[in-house]
Amino acid sequence: MAAQKKKTKEINLLPQEQFATTTTGRVLAWVLSTFRLIVILTEMVVIIAFLSRFWLDIRSSDLTDEVENQKEIVESYSNFEKVFRQTQKKLGVFSQFSANPAQFDLVKNYITPYLPSDVFLKSITLTYSEVRIQGSSFTEQSIAQLISNLNSAGKLKDVKLTQVSSKNESPFIEFSISSILNEGGTI
């Protein structure tokens, strides 16, 4: 027998002849072709996302390493930064006193000798004839002693305690004192 052609049966669920010419047939053919394109585009997006993940992982790793290196550099300068800031603070205090010698004399001659041992001064402000002192102490008695000492010194008058506060986490009592200079407002 000569080569017989095998007849294959094809099953087509969408008949092409009459159904393809109807409106429903055209809409169904359009929907099937559109969904096929959507599936292909979705697969392409997934493949691109999968491949780009490797590049993004490498980039993330490089950036993490760079941040760690920069962090180590910043930490290596932290001690220098602390010393530099302390020096700036000391120079600021010095320049404040050198710009206003009267304030330096006030601190050196009229306030410092009368300080109790556990009183620490934070700031002294001299404006015209008014003096404001801010500081901290461990006890109320030391603050009272400072006020008493300043009153008895004779260079300051009307010495008043204007503010007292304390914080739970700190053993210090913060205070503020205001007074007026004697002798017409000069030292």
Return residue spans where pLDDT drops below 50 for at least 5 consecutive residues: none
Overall shape:
rod-shaped
Structure classification: alpha+beta
Content of β-strand? 15-25%
CATH architecture of the largest domain: 2-Layer Sandwich
Instruction: Determine the mean pLDDT.
Output: 82
Transmembrane segments: 27-51
Pfam family, one: PilN
Keywords: Membrane, Transmembrane, Transmembrane helix
InterPro entries: PilN
Describe the structure.
Keywords: Membrane, Transmembrane, Transmembrane helix. Pfam families: PilN. The chain has helices at 23-76, 78-99, 101-111, 140-153, and strands at residues 119-127, 130-137, 156-166, 173-181. By secondary structure, it is an alpha+beta fold. It has 2 domains: 21-72; 101-185, General secretion pathway protein M, EpsM (Gyrase A, domain 2), CATH 3.30.1360.100. The radius of gyration is 43 Å and the shape is rod-shaped. The mean pLDDT is 82.
List the defining traits of the structure above.
187 residues; rod-shaped; 4 helices; 4-stranded antiparallel sheet; Gyrase A, domain 2
Give a nutshell description of this structure.
It holds the Pfam family PilN. With 187 residues, this protein is of the alpha+beta class. The longest helix has 54 residues.
Write the layout of secondary structure elements.
Elements lengths: L22 H54 L1 H22 L1 H11 L7 E9 L2 E8 L2 H14 L2 E11 L6 E9 L6
Antiparallel strand pairs: 1-2, 2-4, 3-4
